[in-house]
Amino acid sequence: MRGMTTVEKILFQKTGQRVRPGDIVIAPVDGLMATDTTAPGALRAFEKMGGQRVWAPEKCAFVIDHAAPAPNERIANLHQMMREFARQQGIRLFEIGEGICHQVIVEHGYVRPGYLFIGADSHTPTYGALNAFACGVGSTDLAAVLLTGKIWLKTPATLRIRCHGQLRADASPKDLILYLTGKVGISGATYMSVEFEGEVFERMSLAGRMCVANMTAEMGAKTGFVHPRGLKLPYPFEPVEPDPTAEYARTIDVEIGELPPQVAAPESPDNVHPIDRYVGTPVHYGFIGTCGNGRLEDLQAAARILRGKRLPEGVRLVIAPASRSVLLEAMLDGTAHTLVAAGATLITPGCGPCVGSHEGVPADGETVISAANRNFRGRMGNPRAQIFLASPATVAASVLAGYITPPPPDEAHNTEAISTL
Ligand code: SF4
Q1: Which domain holds residue 361?
Q2: Is the pTM of this model over 0.70?
Q3: Residue nearest to ligand 1 atom 4, measured at CA
């Protein structure tokens, strides 16, 4: 019998239906999340639908992360609207400074292997790092899930990406996913499920896996999964693995053993090249953070490069830890001290300047090197600035030099299957 891909198997477990790509299902969800960008619209839609009580408040979470603290009166009032709804309904609301939605949802155990999880944010596939089927929806769809606990879905076809070899000591999970995004393209996996396989993932930390699953959104995917072999979580779990006889719409085989550090040049996350092509390009502003690369190991990688050094005049570095826990850990182990002593500015845990609403809009003509996941024109709030995407180590090395430059080899990137976030 034809086997099942990971996404088909999770849908089977939820609905009892054996599905094929294109089949429509209505499935019960295990949890949902909305942010200060999407929750207000969802709450208005919920009201219009005649909603009184949410289906299961303990499975829902709201996160104030995109514009936190509020940069203006309008957004402050939207935050207030979320707080009031959450209080009335008994929903947990993660306040300003708790962190980015995709980090706090994992840290607080709202998503687990085998879950079907819905988030009102396009980077919800990040939870595929935890072997969950997680996908982003708009505010109106989210309102319907808030009310019913069910989601209408078309079964995605699956793109399998098999990676062969291990990463070099100067390349990180971000370099790998940038490279793969360049290969697949920003619409190369539209509405697909992307499954990543290969021994490289077996020793990859949860943070690295999240970085990889996160950028399936840049391929246009509905969801993504990093194979659970080697996944370490602080609780026992039953992994959902694809069957050996599963059918894939497409399989890509990639040799990664000689992959150098990568950058995505302006103005698309799939405009990816080996870093050599841009070495020497002056940079004015570095940013480390986001749901892609704001975790402890990302800050530590930057700190190893910046320890005892000082940023040159005319170059700044903004760092937004992915969560309060990440910030606390970074304070405890000296990482935060190293970064600030080198001249970095630490800002509120949250999305920071990623989406361009506040906390670090670049000036006209500036070049940003960023560990974020998107670099479309105007992404950070100024269409006259240009953004390169890279790993946190490349960002740190580049701001220290004042121009784009590769990071030194760092065995700590890829040798520990640590479970820290
Ligand atoms: Fe979106 Fe950036 Fe926030 Fe991630 S960090 S959820 S990409 S705004």
Answers
A1: 263-401
A2: yes
A3: 291
